[in-house]
Amino acid sequence: MSDELKLIDAAKGGSVDAFSKLVHGYREGLFRFLLTRCSSHADAEDALQDTLINAYRYIGSYNPQWRFSTWLYRIAIRNAGKLRPANLAELGDPADHSADPLAHCIADSERDNLWRSAKRVLSDEVFAAMWLRYVEDMSVRDIASVLERSSSWTKVNLLRGRRALELEMNGKAGNAGSEAYG
Amino acid sequence: MPEVKLMDKLASKLREDAARIDAEISTQLDSRIHASLNAIEPDTARRQRQPGRRPVSFWLASSLTGVAGAIAVIAVLNLVDTEEPAALPRTVAENTMPPIQIPALDLDVEAAMLTGPLAQELEDLQADLKKAEEVVRRDVRIDF
Questions:
Q1: Residues A94 and A162 in one domain
Q2: Does residue A89 share a domain with residue A41?
Q3: Which residues of A touch B11 (CB under 8 A)?
Q4: Which among B9, B33, B41 has the least Cβ separation from residue A52?
Q5: Which of A4, A31, B39, B73 is an S-S bond match for B23, by CB 3.0 to 4.6 Å?
Q6: Is residue A136 domain-shared with residue A88, that is, in the same domain?
């Protein structure tokens, strides 16, 4: 039995320490993902807290046939989805990016971060699929499970997302070149 | 081939850019999460603390005990029914109470008072009917 499964068993028995050890390696990645999904830093913090609480409470329902991270991200997406509609009214002017947690978390020198462009050009679900594929290294099957979509939908939208981001990347490179030579 | 290289470049750029997003978990958030986790317990642990399901033999034994009890009660009741009713002691049987004398009430008066207005009403209605009949007869005679 792997260490992770032992920790899961201990957490099922009510050990907070075992659960904390279990999720320790996932917390930062999860928080980074939630920052891209939520409308504010505070919301992302709340979503992380809710995700971990729900994961601990319902750890008995975890099926070891899936990766633990897949299960965690599924809970995280649901929690982020719950927070999102209530905060839509607070967003104000869509052109104002001051509320965007990504903008806060990316240093000024790195404003050309491709994930900011991804957030602008991709839908929420395609963005999440791209993130899970390229940052979390999830398989198409796992991504489909997290997003509760079919594998074919996931494949098609990963391809579309890649193309859209390629265009963004090339467009920026082209603009930079024209500025440099213009 | 260049397309594959571009894909690799995109993947590595996405990975690098994700790593640049500052997602440090503050100590306040960490302690908040820890406190929340300590305040709850998993459903599985709660279920384990609750008394487990009783074995099938327990329910079988309970059912058999119930059936045996019911049979015993029925048997006892049948035995009691077959016995002769016990005779009353002579002293109790002979000392009968004298019949109670109830004074007779004049109920007709009240009945007459209640039905009087109705009888009058009936007479009035019959008179009305008679008058109406006479009018009809007269009209018929005029017509012919």
A1: no
A2: yes
A3: 134
A4: B33
A5: A31
A6: no
Would you list the domain boundaries of chain B? Answer: 115-144
The residue segments making up the domain with residue A27 are 1-105
CATH no. for residue A128? 1.10.10.10
- Lookup result for tokens 């500025």: A179
pLDDT digits (tens, 9 = 90+) for A87-129: 443 333 334 445 566 666 665 545 578 888 898 899 988 999 9
Go through chain B and tell me how many residues it has. Answer: 144
Identity of the residue numbered B46? R
Domain count, chain A: 2
**pTM for this prediction:** 0.60
Give the closest of A35, A56, A110 to B23, CB-based.
Answer: A35
Q: Are residues A86 and A122 in the same domain?
A: no
**Under an 8 A CB cutoff, do B10 and A165 touch?**
yes
CB A174 within 8 A of CB B18: no
| Residue A156 touches partner B, C-beta closer than 8 Å | no
Give the residue from A105, A122, A141 where a domain finishes: A105
DSSP readout, A32-63?
HHHHHHSSSHHHHHHHHHHHHHHHHHTGGG--
Q: If you count them, how many residues does chain A have?
A: 182
Interface pTM (ipTM) of the complex? Answer: 0.75
Contact by Cβ (8 Å): B35, A46: no
Q: Which residue in B14, B34, B43 has the most chain A C-beta atoms within 10 A of its own C-beta, making it the best mutation to test that interface?
A: B14
Scanning the structure block, which residue is given the tokens 């032992």? A6
**Of A53, A83, A105, which residue sits at a domain end?**
A105
CA distance B58 to chain A (A): 28
Nearest chain B CA: its distance from A32 CA (Å): 5
Smallest CA-to-CA distance from A19 within A67, A43, A54 is with A54
Size of interface A-B (CB pairs under 8 A): 101
Same domain, A95 and A122: no
pLDDT digit string, tens, across residues A38-62 = 888 888 899 999 999 999 999 988 9
